[in-house]
Description:
This protein is of the alpha+beta class. It is 58% helix and 15% strand. The protein has helices spanning 12-24, 39-42, 45-65; strands at residues 2-6, 30-34. The chain has a two-stranded parallel ribbon with strand order 1-2. The longest helix has 21 residues, at 45-65. The radius of gyration is 13 Å and the shape is elongated. The chain starts with a strand and ends with a helix.
Amino acid sequence: MLVIAALDMSERDRLVLDQCRHIAAGAPLQVKLLHVVSLPKSLLPGNMREAAAYLDTVRAHLNESG
Length: 66
């Protein structure tokens, strides 16, 4: 099963990730993490690095928790 988890770097992300864990408890699950950077911000490398670092942190946490 594939789930795309849309993250916005807010407290709501925890709820999305908790739901992914709940779904994964019943079946093998592949989670794709998605964070969209708006066009003006995407032109600034710092914002893209910040978003990438955030997704890397979330990915590592999900991998650690199974």
